[in-house]
User: Fold these one by one.
Assistant:
Number 1:
Amino acid sequence: MILIRKIHKWASVIVGIQFLLWLLSGIYFNLMDHTKAAGDTYRSHTHQQTEVNNNNFIDLKEVLINFKPAISIEPTYILGKAYYLLTHQKGLYKNFKNRYSLANALTGDKMVIDSTLALEIAKQSYNGPSDTSSIKLLHPPIEDFPKQKNAAWQINFVNDINTSVYIEAESGRLVGHSDDHKRFADIFFMLHFMDYANEGSFNNIQIILFAFITLWLSFSGLIWTVDLGLRGQYRIKYFSKSQGVKLFDKNQKSMGTVILSNHTNLLDGLIEHDIALPSTCGGGGTCGRCRVMINPMLKSTSADHVHFSDKELQQGYRLACQHFSTDVEHMTLMDVTEAKKHTLVLSESRFLTPFMKELRFKVLGEVPISYKAGAFMRFFIPAGKGVSIPLNLPEHLKANWHHIEHLEYEHLACTRSYSLAESPLVTDELVFTIKIQTAPQHKTLPGVGSSYLCNMAEGSSIEAIGPFEEFFAKKDSQKTMVLLGAGSGMAPLKSLIEEQVAIKNIENIDLRNIHFFYGARSEGDLLYADEFYRFAENNESFHYYPTLSKPSDDWLGATGYAQEILSLNFETLGHIDDLEFYLCGPKNMMTETINFLKAKGVKDSAIAFDDFT
């Protein structure tokens, strides 16, 4: 099934590109000037009148004897003179492979179309500037007329659109005119009919292969849909059922029986019973954290195959987010967190930058939650309507959103995870720094979670589970902390820094050495810069390295990317065994940094990262 899905996705890319080409070429066909597209800009459609006394024609039998064998013979006129056109090999159409001879109708002498005569014939059908640049005898394939299978003279005239007139070499027939207008139109005909080999026909191997790819796309899509249905991914809530499932912890100790609905996946169903499994992807099947062992075994999904070995799958290991309670009798939970579900009330929402907001929540009806700095929470985003531009956008920020077109859309319920941006040692609120994910070209919807949360009105509430403590400072360590982040990766790193400063003030001890490398695009994107400058001014052990990738001319600090500034200062940080690294930011930044650190000899145990992507 994994292979089918991969092939389906790549096939959809091929089909999608060709559909786009069809759309673009179709629009062009509706807008183009058909006279120009046919190459007829300088074509003359007047013909010379010819009067010839047929009584003077040589006897047909004599001509046939001299030019045998011939399939047919017929009179024709070239530049006002009479000839016999004898056909020796006849194709279905004139442009197909044919063999002709020309004989003077009055003398019976053989007539040959040379370059001089071809030029005169061409001028008869041409009404533009008369100067020529070249005359060539071309044999097929002929680029301007790919369907033409017979040799032809190409007469190139000197004009503003580079007109070429083609005269068939054996018959003297006008093949046609071509110019820059027609050649441009031919590009769109090629794209529309997938004639990438320039055969002049839509009955080509490319379109045949495309038909098979489209057939495969439909067939594999049907297989995928049936597979999802068999795995219970399509469920109507009205027809949902509930059943009891016996739970065990990883030591096979009974946790009792819970009632789960087969409308909700096992991960979200357990949360209704205050049982939280670790998950950073929100149930997308990508993080592989919500590991359970199911009995009897359910059919494995493609996500299961990614995160479990064949042996583990045979033992019943599955991802809770990918399965429902149907036919589940026993379930062993491999890793249960102490996170709980809470109702959060928004107390404050403010813009930090044009595209990032700080949200402050209070826990409804509960005492403040305690957690380690660097933790995150998973929000339950309800189904509803969204907008592409934030509501109540401050006037001074509107210029930054002018390129975003207003869009209203509906979205389904989902979950999204966000890191806490402040330590519980400095606030009793839950603080989040969230970047609003935009959709500038309507190719995808805006970020559902970030748009919903950043458009919440103060005083409104939302449910969230957590905090999940997976990224935190090592306890009782006095090693130098090196933090690296960019964008909204600021949140957990800020929390870690505030925690260390708070511990220093509470316990009246020296602050451990901290080096904070942070990257942003411009000065306006630097989050909490004043706060970190103040930390650095008041604490000799704190070092702040703000870095801008697209600074203004007035910027006096470091330029480039945060990981580059880290590498430049690496030797000044201290001995490698006395360093701990904490990373949070875009995946490319973290991958590049981890590779750099390992190349320098930093151990895996000294590198912690929060992959918010």
Note: The chain is about 25% helix and 25% strand.
Number 2:
Amino acid sequence: MEFLGLIGYGIAAIAYLVFFLLLMVARQKTFASQLVIYACLTTLLSVAVCALQVYQSFSLQLTFIFEAIKIAFWSLLFISVNTGLQSFGQFIANQQVKKYLLIWLGLSVFGAFSVWVLQKYEWLFIVLLALNLFALVNLEQVFRNHQQQLRWALWPLTIGLGCLFIFDFVMYSQASMINRLDFDFWYARGFIAAAVMPLLLLSSKRLKDCSPDLFISRDVVFYSSMIVFSGIYLLILAFSGYLIRYIGGQWSDMLSTVFMVLGLLALVGLLIANSLRAKIKVFIGKHFFANKYDYRVEWLKLIAAIEKDDSNNLCVSACKAMGECLQVNYCAFIKVNGSELNIIYQGELNLSEQVLSQLKAIHKYSEKQQWIIDVREYERYPQRYPNLIIESALLLNSHIDLIVPTYSQQQLTGYFVLPGPQEKPMLNWEDRDFLFAVSKQLGNYLSLQNAQVKLAESQQFSVFHRMSAFVLHDLKNIQAQLSLITKNANQHQHNPEFVADVFSTVESASERLNKVVVQLRKKGKEAPKDNKTEINVGELISKSVDICNQDNPQVICSCDEKVLILVEQERLLNVFIHLIQNAQQACKHDGWVKVNGNIGINGLIITIEDNGQGMSSEFINEQLFKPFSTTKGNAGMGIGVFEAKQFIEEMHGQISVESTVGKGSLFTIKLPLGEVSKESE
């Protein structure tokens, strides 16, 4: 066997010497080609030292040193190709190169220490096993990272070095478990090294440029992770074999062998288990890789699809947006109404009674599972949908492949029913996540739009109610004027002045009713304002007092001077009447109400004072001047003071209130001098 080993290593040394000379003659200028030369040189030195060791029978420690150097150069070559390094400066500055050199140096020092100081060869074998594992992982990434047009140049290199590293990996795994090197393997590796040299030579001739743009696919990460997982598993087996040998005594060899075989069988079983492979692939895709979908782009596309649709039906817009996201032409929407399903929109899909019955079964399942139903997947793998029983053929014949639930505020609101994309026979986990995100956004869109429709309807009713309140308030004032006529008709019907006043009052009521009619025709828009006329404020106050004095308590009026003001007479009269009536209603029958109008320093000042029940400061500050706030309960509309404040401020005046609960209130109206003129009696 030693003679065969010498022949094998000798042939390998000659082969790699020829390989080295050919590389030196070709002398390609790329940095990767230079690293190939260095890696070839270290491989030549390694097999030459192995041949010399077999011939001279000296310690294997020297050969292991060259083995570690050889692995380092090939690994550095793989790293440089993976990262696209183009020069020695980039090579020195690269972080991956630095990390690998640091790890390699640490493992090498630990291996040397374990042999020369601790005399533990099994640790050295584990170090070489780890270095070979790292080289295998990087070699696999070199092949998978490159585009298809460059793989034809890399596959001979991948196969050749892969065979070499895998052979060494198995050899060192066995050595670490049984604590000695199997020399049958050791002598055979020379022939293997010689046999793979032509493959390396072929790749070196094809490899003109090792710096194309790289695309790291998910499969690369997945298969590399599986290799790392396998290597770590074998390292654990090696360490466990060492412990068995350390503890087992004379049975240690047999126990190590049995443990290795059982461990390898368990590893193979785990690697070929589809469920485990699928879970690992999903885990890697979710946590170690960028998403297949650019959600920023998809979000903008979804918004554009919703905006460009001119349909007045919200569900139609949502269905078209969902269809565009999946690039399908048909989509239907079914609304969940308790336990019932209502077809809101079906487009060109045929949602017959039979189909609807199947969807009801899916609804019961989805309420519990909250899962997208892929009918194509169900037909092939029904076990993935436990406790779901449907007629998949019926749905597929109706072009229904996907049933996507949509939620709003964590409540199931409906389903999008649509065919699946033709290029995807089944959905994967990422497609499902994407569809859930789209359906969630569309569910919120539908919920928001429905809420806006209801809000608009509520606002329309609110406008109508406010308009009704203002109309009723005007009618109440007109009714008060007309009731004054009926009360005094029997006593003063033969009085010419009373008759004239009646006609004047009826005319005023008619004008105000015409304004109400105009306001109703304009659907609550503000009615045209009266033209301002110059009136005597004292006479207007006296008129309002006469109207209000038909009720108790009687109003005391004091307005000595003749004050002329340019104002809308009817509106100001309404303000006076309303404020005086409020004061009367706040008082008892034996109470009093006083109205005063005088010229002050800053303009006309009108006060309305009573000794009624008063108002709290909180009510004055927060509710008094707001519409529909009143202290009268159902007897008042709560808009009189609001209208008074609006009118006074339109005249650039001010209205203020002082009140004490249980003692009374004082309303003060101030109008600027610019609106006022004074004439002597």
Note: Residues 429-492 form the longest helix (64 residues).
Number 3:
Amino acid sequence: MSEQIGLFGESENNDANEASSMMDVSKRVSELHHLLHKYNHQYYVLDDPSVPDSEYDALFQELKSLEAEHPEFITPDSPTQRVGDKPLSAFETVTHELPMLSLDNVFDESEFRAFDQRIKKMLGITDSEIIEYACEPKLDGIAVSLLYENGLLVRGATRGDGTQGEDITLNVRTIPSIPLKLEGEGYPQRLEVRGEVYMPKKGFNRLNEIAKAAGEKTFVNPRNAAAGSLRQLDPKLTAKRPLEFCCYSAGVVEGGSLPESHYAVLNQFKAWGFLTNKEMACVQGIDECLAYYQNLHAKRDDLAYEIDGIVFKVNRFDLQKRLGFVSRAPRWAVAHKFPAQEKITVLQDVEFQVGRTGAITPVGRLEPVFVGGVTVSNVTLHNMDEVERLGLMIGDSVIVRRAGDVIPQVVKVVEDRRPENAVAVSLPDDCPVCHSEIERVEGEAVARCTGGLICAAQRKQAFIHFASRKAMDIDGLGEKLIEVLVDKNMVTSLGDLFRLEAKDVAALDRMGEKSAEKLINSLSASKQTTLAKFLYSLGIREVGEATAQNLAKAFGKLDAIMNASMEQLTAVEDIGPIVAEHILHFFENEANRAVVTDLVELGLAWDDVEVLNPVELPLNGQTWVLTGTLEQMSRTEGKEKLQALGAKVAGSVSKKTHCVVAGPGAGSKLTKAQDLGVDVLDEAAFIEMLNQYGITV
């Protein structure tokens, strides 16, 4: 009997311990729910996090581990349940209990004042009386309905046609600014919260950057990106998109009540954990509404999200009820729209412009369209990669976007409007200015004219760059004067600047004797410069001020730079193979070398540069010997290549010889090398070594 009592007692103790343990887990899960919901709200809604990301991540992982061990504690409002459901095959239809109506629009002050007059007339009040309006930015996103029961999110739906929408519950649960469980207390048993799902500009730009890098299709604008993200059948994809939800009204309210005005309701929503727009306001009368509109219009481009106007609503619900609705919109609200930032127009032609470095840029000629506050008739298409990415053809209808001071851009082709006579855009074979060959290097998006200084388009820009403050700093030699000098063929090469005479310059329009004399003096003074500034002034592709400084410090002399090998150049700090190749190609061009020589002969000079970072060549300190006949190159060429790598090339073999290159017919030198144990390479091994150091044969 005692044994039986003991056994029962042990079992009871185990049960009690297990129950206590489970209570501890339940309590900890509840604590983690509370903390993570609070930190989510601080981060995504208040934009005021109180803990670092590492702290949040640690708590989140703890909750995941507890739920994995005890799945019975997983609840729909758990922070871990924002993502995790399987993809849908299709969205189910939701019928809205209260229709989600659209808004009427006004586009100028007179139309908005007429709206205010109609309100007063319907309410039977005088023009002098003031109506209180709630004001909110009109977010450019997707209208969404969220249904809460007893404080828990049970359904999310799109607006659809206003009567029926799509069930997107799994997707809205992934949006961090949407509370899975309402905060505080006092909320109705059933509460429908309506608002806008949108994508902030920063997230949109990053999303498109990732898509471009992956060679994928980009989104036209943040609204399209938000809509596409929200309608993903796989909620895991939606979860990866940077979406936000901002509430703007209530729908169904059962088992409770809300405040008596729209502005007060939004503040109540904020207390229950929703994101509300920080720019919302409550104002008195039409003039304050217009001032609010102008203020937000001025701030529009600096906001973190896109807005396309302001929504004005009669604030008091009793007045809203008296005003009622028309068939598709409330009488008590209106959207005062901003000028459109996107318009459709026709691409009439594509022309090609030549830049200072020879870059060939396609420029679209548009049927003029008023967008973003200005009339746009030209738009840069950047390069042929962008033309191909857009699938652009001459004659296409295109969507043009201009936001604030941003340069207008074509963001999409309206393919179903493409005419039968549309013409493909093709890169010309020859430069449109000098008719030199156009080169498009594999792996580079930009095509370039190979004409260099013989190309008039590049010539003007080359002079402008040469004379600029950070280059030769020639006072008085501005863009307009350079254009005149080039157009009149007074200068065709950089050296011609220093051959100008005061009397010839004085004869130009708007130039007198004093101005001409001043220019000649400035040209003379500029001759004393630095090696780094001179290098920068030549306009070598991708050789900016810092690179020019590094070259000067590494080589010390102009001749050394002009004759440097790929290996020597890439040994310089911050110079990679691409920049080194641009430098090589520039100085391999005889016309460029002639210009440089001419400038030096004309008196351009600089103090010697102390070589702070001497270039370490791979064969420095080594002595090599060439013997026999080389078939792929001459012995002289072989010698030059070895010297470019820092080696000394001797005529005889000794114990100090590092290596001998022996071709067919090698005689006594080869024998002596073998006797002394000196390394010997045949021509194939020699060429392979040169290739390893970036020297081609």
Note: The radius of gyration is 37 Å.
Number 4:
Amino acid sequence: MDINNLPDDKDALKDIVADYHQQLIYLQEKLNFLQKAIYGSKSDKKPKCGSKETWPMMPGLVEMETEVETPQEKTITIPEHSRKKRGRKPIPKDLPRKDIIHDLSGEEKICPCGVELSPIGQEVSEKLDYIPARLIVNRYIRLKYACKNCEGAEDDQGAVKIAPMPEQLIPQGIVTPGLMAHIITAKFVDGLPFYRQCKQLLRLGIDISRSTMVSWAMHAARVCEPFLDLFKKEIMLGFQVGIDETPVQVLDEPGRSNTSKSYMWVFLGGHPENPTVLYDYHPTRSGLALDFLQDYQGYIQSDGYAVYNDLGDKPGIFHVGCLAHVRRKFMDVVKLSKKQKHKGGTAQEILNLIAKLYILEQSFETRKLKPDRIQEERQEKSIPILNQIKTLLDERSKTTPDKSKLGTAINYALNQWDRVVRYTLDGRLRPDNNLVENAIRPFALGRKNWLFAGHPNGAKAGAMYFSLVETAKKNGLEPYAYLRHLFENLPLAKTEQDLKALMPQYIDPEVLPSPTAC
């Protein structure tokens, strides 16, 4: 606005000053938040300024404080629990042992009285040693046979016979299931790019190029492709599907620039006792979730991204929100405060009430309540707390500027409220989508090392491997042992039942060998 053309009306001037003041507050908050994001702590840990409690079911959160209740508030009694004393974990018994004997000298075995000492026992101290990995070469020796009596005969009775080569994951390559499992585990579990693995192998005396490694991984991924449809069927069988997505840069995406963002989607569902994690690559952030769950009936749980709204409008689908995302918005407000030791403010009040909800959830887990009982207690204890939060949100929304950080948090919570409280309707549901975020975190951590995918086919192969290893981990399987078992037996699988038997959801962990025995 041109300051030379300001209106003469005092009320109009006040309105202009008020608008600029609100904009100044908004820009200052935004600047503080960006500075906090760049230079501040990334944890959701709250400042120490009162009683400390452990916040359950919130990854990355170490401690929190709860507001001191007034005498008029209802007191919630949480059962006591015991905590195991921490100490050094024992060395696994299946690791090989090497005995190093330390004995006395001949002179030291003689007692001052002149009699030789008799052994009465021993003391054993165990210490871990490390032996660098070593490569071995498997020689497949196939014996040939021929009939000397038929040698030179015109018919083929004297033809040479030789034992067939066993089925191989990559028939023309030198890679074995063990080496393939190691390469995939290092890349998609440990986040070690292929070029670093090449350097490691070179130190062990073998020169394998990065392009060869990529070729092996792409070939194995094509062999594993049938698992994608099987995993999707497993997810559709569950009562709930959790959804999340994270960006990934793909360099050679057709029709798009190298700076365009593609997305890796994650779906978590299936039977609660045998969960399934499915990664799916898509060049955009819209459309995939709706297509993927086209025929699904049940609960879906997600954050507040607008693309998920269409899912909630479909008949038979009940959209559940994420309380953790609501909490995160108010944590951003608290982090902006320079006086973090000061207890008060709307954001702090909301966080304290959310804390009570999670303490209740922890008590349900501690007491191992069944879903029906959890639903009853949520209706009795959680709903009143949620009503307190809603009342507070409605009141403060009238006096808080929409563009302020607090106003953004309040509006987000109000817009998502109907979905956020829906978890109280079914005891099997969780108040947040953290399990899916935990499943997508390994991809985000690995992305910091390998940065991008070179081609859409590489991104799809990565989605396949992440689906296998994350589902294996969810079902209590050690990733390397599972992948080795899979690559050894996958060439023999001819039917859908054979493939299903190799899925991590249906393999007993006891069947797989220990990694030290592989």
Note: The beta strands are 144-145, 161-162, 240-249, 261-271, 274-282, 298-301, 317-320.
